[in-house]
Amino acid sequence: MNPISNIWNHPKTSAAGLLIAIVSIAAVLSQQGIGMGQAGSGTVVTLVSGLATALLGLLARDPSPSAVVLSDPQRGVVEPKDQRFGSTAKLGAWALIALLLPLPFLGGCSGASVAQDIVNWTPALQGAVATVDSTAALLDPADGLAFAAATAQFDAASNLLAAQARAYLANPAAGTLAKLQAQVVVLEQQVNASLLQVAKIDNLASQQHALAAIQAVGTVVSAILALVQSVSTKAQVARMAAASTIKLAAVEPYLDEGKAAAMVAGHYGEPLAVAQAQVTRVELDAMQAGF
User: Fold this and answer.
1) Which residues share a beta bridge with 42?
2) How far apart, in whole angstroms, are the C-alpha atoms of residue 8 and residue 129?
3) Taking the CB of residue 275, how many other CB atoms lie within 10 A of it?
4) Contact 127/65 with Cβ under 8 angstroms?
5) Domain residue limits, the chain
6) Where are the alpha helices (DSSP H) in 10-101?
7) Alpha helix (H) ranges present in 60-153?
8) Which DSSP string corresponds to 141-208?
9) Residue 50: exposed, middle, or buried by beta-carbon count in 10 A (0-12, 13-18, 19+)?
10) What are the pLDDT tens digits along the chain (291 aa)?
């Protein structure tokens, strides 16, 4: 097949392939410590990778409403399904491949920058916990009591995690890292347990309100957990995963990736498409590590 005519006939798929190649090459360069100079707070390589991922997300749009009509009774025409959805399916596959590749905020970072990134998340963590504290009053009385009981330990655990993050930033030694590793798992398990408990609330409005408040805490904890994993050895990650008895798979049905991505995008000041890829990659990495 003539490659020029193929590109001309399938511009979106070809563009997606090019973006995949860019992200793949950037990931390899980042893993080898090649940054090609600074760009803002990161490197040129991570900037290019992030932009390519964002553009890929824009390409992989869902079909428009007019494209999902299976037939038109007035005309007696049935549009072939494979013609309508073929390019969308291909772009979805490209996007999935991109999500499995290393992404900028998880790779190519020094221990000091990771420690600072963890500390930078702590105000968001404490803000999310404060929202949880005020949520019980917004629910039905019985549901509010159940919610308060499920989240009672968040304040102490989040304050301790924030303190240990600051301690690790000030002294990134093995001892302070070990305490940070243990505490992030403690709070991660509290979040997972509370999600399972409030999912039993019968009142749908109360349930959704409660889940949303807890997920905001969980999103920050997941980000911190991913950052801690990035500066931990395989043996240390294995010990953390072993202490995680309530697995991510058990609570995944109650999570809203869109809201999580919006929080990540706002925190890093990046496109939503990049944040969506990061959230998905964090979940995949956590599950593969045994969380």
Assistant:
1) 39
2) 52
3) 27
4) no
5) 3-104, 109-289
6) 11-31, 44-59, 81-99
7) 81-99, 111-135, 141-150
8) HHHHHHHHHHTTTHHHHHHHHHHHHHHHHH---HHHHHHHHHHHHHHHHHHHHHHHHHTT-S-HHHHH
9) buried
10) 455 555 555 565 566 566 666 655 655 555 455 656 655 545 665 556 556 555 655 555 444 444 334 444 444 444 444 443 444 444 444 444 444 444 445 544 567 889 999 999 999 999 999 999 999 999 999 999 999 999 999 999 999 999 999 999 999 999 999 999 999 999 999 999 999 999 999 999 999 999 999 999 999 999 999 999 999 999 999 999 999 999 999 999 999 999 999 999 999 998 888 888 889 889 988 999 999
Nearest-angstrom CA–CA distance, 205 and 269: 31
Neighbours of 230 (CB within 10 A): 18
Query: How far apart (Å, rounded) are the C-alpha atoms in residues 101 and 104?
Result: 10
Cα four-point dihedral sign 37, 42, 45, 50: negative
CB atoms within 10 A of CB 213: 24
**Residue that the structure tokens 């979805």 belong to:** 92
Neighbours of 190 (CB within 10 A): 23
Is residue 260 within 8 Å of residue 219, measured between CB atoms?
yes
CA separation for the pair 104, 43 (Å, rounded): 9
CA 287/CA 92 separation, integer angstroms: 22
What's the rounded Cα separation, in Å, for the pair 104 and 227? 12
Rounded Cα–Cα distance for residues 221 and 67 (Å): 39
Q: How far is CA 3 from the centre of its chain?
A: 36
Q: Give the type of residue at 291.
A: F
Q: How far apart are CA 72 and CA 108, in angstroms?
A: 53
pTM: 0.68
